[in-house]
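Final report, results section. Input specification for complex C-07:
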Amino acid sequence: MSTRVLEFGGLAAGFCGRLFRHGGAEVIRIEGVVPSVTDAWVSQGAVDAFLHAGKQRLAFRGRDQLLELAGSVDVVVAEGMPEELEALGWDAIDGIRVAITPFGMTGPRRQWHASASVLLAMGGYTYLMGDPGRAPLTLPGHYTEFQSGQYAYIGTSACLYEGQDHSLDVSMLEVVLSLSQMTTVMWSCNGDVRSRHGSSFGILYPINLFPCADGWFHVNVVPHFWGPFTQMLGRPDLEDDVRFASSRGRIDNKDELDRIIFESLGHRTKAEVQKLGEQARVPTGVLQEIDEVLADPHLAERNIWCDINGMQSPSLAYRFDGDLPNDFIVEPIDG
Amino acid sequence: MANGPLSGVRILDLTHVWAGPLGTRILGDLGAEVVKIEPPMGRGPGTKPPPGVGIFLGGDAGEDPWNRQGVFVKLNRNKKSVAIDLKAPSGRETFLDLVRVADVVIENFSARAMKSLNLGFETLRDVNDQIIYIAMPGFGTTGPYSHWVAYGPSVEPMTGLGAVMGYSPDEPRNSAIALPDAIGGVSGAAAVVTALNRRRETGTGAFVELSLHEAGVSFHGDFMLDRQLGQDPKPIGNDHPAHAMSAVVRTRGEDEWIAVSCRTEDERERFESIVCDGPQNIDKHELTAALQAAGIAAGPVNITPDFLADEQVEARKFFVELSRVGQPNIAFPGNPIVIDGEFDHPDWQTAPLLGEHNREILTGWIGYDDEVVDRLLRDGVVVERPPG
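Structure output:
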């Protein structure tokens, strides 16, 4: 890709730039232009390695520098508060540009103070996560920022394909709102408010995290997996058990079903449970600690790891046949 | 069909459930001509479900429940529908004729599904060497997990999120909202636009693979790097490692909350002075306004009627009402990519009926006579309703 990208701002802009860089574009990042609109869960070293490896990094020297660079690239990616971007001369920038802001460049709340937790709450995600009767849970990490960066990437890349200049406006709140699974239609169609059920789904069971000998496993037993799941449990007799014969029955008898699951699988290791799920053809996953993800044999065989300053970092979500992961280094900030 | 920068791009969309249709919805919103290639039973049987089962427009399954499923309609606006039995020889040939004139084929079946139909990438490339093929299997097409049955919620704890989400290290939790699907869906759209631009430079099509598992892992790479830098991230509930205080706080009413992020001790002191009488005595919207006025990041934990009525969301016209004759008008989430300040979408179309565009696409894209289309319909190779 012969594209040149100018990027400044926080995590969302950084993720957008990461997608461009790993796709072969030249990415120039200016550090210190505007404060980050959200805060990192990880160290600056981890942020730099994950998001900014391979980018040319410049220190911010003022509005003139920024505008001059903006005029020399194909795409400008910015993240900040609307008034800050406008003060920098955002509207004077031609070409393909995208502004990523917490609430959008327009509207009565465009200058509201934000965090990822606030955006997830206002966007309808938080109410759905965690246990009933307890405080709902937010998401750790940077889901909101990275999804916003992806949308910015998609929009600007579409403009590159078209070959026309456009000004794009991506609101992080709207990103969250766009990614509801069935929350809005449950309300609009049935008047139902989707609620939280811990790690479970609520209307179908068993879908949950369960303890086992060395950690936790997850099964996603929608109705047509019930028969295979009874095989996984070593309890084929349960397939026709009237207590569990329907989704409603499995929910109504959840406590007894949980006891049976624990009795059958609770003493097994994660690896054993995974094997049983594989054999029974039941959607099964195990809760992996970070070290386990880094050492996962499937990911290793699929060659997903980039070398970033001697560390493992995942490559992009998508892979072109024949492409190898990009090994980058984190460049020092110039100036 | 929507107008947008991807106008002229032809996409054959074989995706189903959430991740795939989410990705192709983004592309349709940006102007691509997305044609859903649907199996005759892809939307379920032609019979009405029992009362109270399912999510249907207006709460009513109607006489054509396969055209009224709420989640399907939400995900499939700005798309067209051709319903073909790909297992029938003439159905397969019709599909290959469509591939000849398409830009992109995208699917999210299991790793072996398309090859088992003899419609894998190599076959499609033989009829169109410019074709971009996006495969979205749960665990990829290679590797020891590639044959595992993958659903987003079961993939999620294997992405790194499972290690850091929960009330405490002893109380891990899944999101229960299938995050790998949402990540994979948006990543799928990113893969398509990347491939289109790349084809401009290389002159050839490509096979692109995107696994839900790796999409989820790619979103948590920062935690993995932090671990290698000596940190040990664990679940910390609603706290935030960089904030003086971060919490989800109870407010007045049943199950009402706000999210608050106090970055500094000064902000925390301001928060505590505002809620000195107890936040559980204050309405969440009033408390949000007070905290925002004090310079503190805060927002209500919204349910659907809350965010539908949010003044910022309304001002930016984010929710879009779409309908057709005989169906109720419903507001659906829009596309967060606003282009050139355009918030109105008069060109947007609601989701297609099953097989609604059979004739339009088969005659318009590949020049089939009406007689050929009629024969395919008579033979049940192409359908306009589920068989039976």
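The radius of gyration of chain A is 24 Å. The first strand of chain A starts at residue 4 and ends at 8. This concludes the modelling results for the funded period.
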